[in-house]
Target: Polygalacturonase
Amino acid sequence: MLLSPFFTFTFLSLFFFFSFSSDLVVAAYPPAPTCSNIVPLRYRNDKISITDFGGVGDGITLNTKAFREAIFRIYHLRRRGGTLLYVPPGVYLTESFNLTSHMTLYLAAGAVIKASQDTGNWPLIAPLPSYGRGRELPGGRYTSFIHGDGLSDVVITGENGTIDGQGDVWWNMWRKKTLKYTRPSLVEFMNSKDIIISNVIFKNSPFWNIHPVYCSNIVVRFVTILAPHDSPNTDGVDPDSSSNVCIEDSYISNGDDIVAVKSGWDEYGIAYGRPSSGITIRRLTGSSAFAGIAVGSETSGGVENVLAEHINLFNMGVGIHIKTNSGRGGLIKNITISHVYVENARLGIKIAGDVGGHPDEKFNPNALPVVKGITIKNVWGVNVRQAGLIHGLRNSPFSDICLSDINLHGSTGPRSPSWKCSDVFGFAYQVSPWPCSQLSTQEPGSCAIYS
Model:
């Protein structure tokens, strides 16, 4: 009997809870591996409440002043060990606000921080230097709902309270082509380190949900991210030109890629030259009309050393998608994706060099990406319409592509072949349906070195 995504996520959450809270269970079942220890969780002795600054959780009162004054107090008093800002139960409507270092934003059970839909007052910030312009439109971009730049030691956590972006007004502007600038993310950290995001529900983001860019030591764990499947570009978690990122034990159902690892866009990303590296993605369950685990398509600074494992995907566009394009440049290497379950998907695995547009006409079409050392193993798919597609570039073929222990079940006909491949070199072992002839059967020193 197949379990629903919600049941699977609930079961996993309970399993992890009891594993860590019961000595008896820990004795029987070793703790699940985790990368979350890259950022220590600090206890804050100093605690304040948003209500101390006039916060009102009636869903009507605008609380921008309260949030900004509370964070101003944290920044200027600089209590030893930092300060916890408590948001009690209630619905706190607010415009965007900036966090500061050495603070915890703590949402109680039943607490909702809800974004104002007055887009006319939304602040603008400069485009990211590795993108050269807004991701959607030339020029600047709207700042994220909750924003941090140049910070360290920041925690967003609680008792599964909600951060609600009320994104439908932004989605409608995108559909009607009335946007003036690129839509805001829900949470974005720039040039920051030692960040923990856990035990919070993120809902209806205007654009990307969680976007760490130019960051290091980031933990995203035990979060739920929700948006309608037709909501445009509501990516779940997008590590971007960032290193040492841990994404674990979460449920994501949204309108774009569940996780997408990025590193800048064409000539701007090449010039900025900051890769994403050391990315671990583990024990995710999710659903999306786009990709489950994605690399790209903006990868001009390079992406390397990515591990994704124990992933459950339902009702997907593509299960695993590594995507780049001519003009991107960048090196994509040492990507390992394993133990993936995919149910109801248009395409199981896609590795392609013809995906994504360009920021402007200044890109160099001869800046070709290099894709090598991609290992995908232990994948089981049910009702997958097409097994796989691998399209390398004629002048930069993808190499060391290793597929092993993959079973993708689904009806395929003459107009929808099981695999399509071009300009790729690699190996395959125990793959069903059998992939394209460009992938040789396993030989000593080929797939074995990645297993």
User: Anything to note?
Assistant: The first strand starts at residue 46 and ends at 49. Helices lie at 5-21, 23-28, 64-77, 168-176, 266-272. Confidence is low (pLDDT under 50) at residues 1-27.
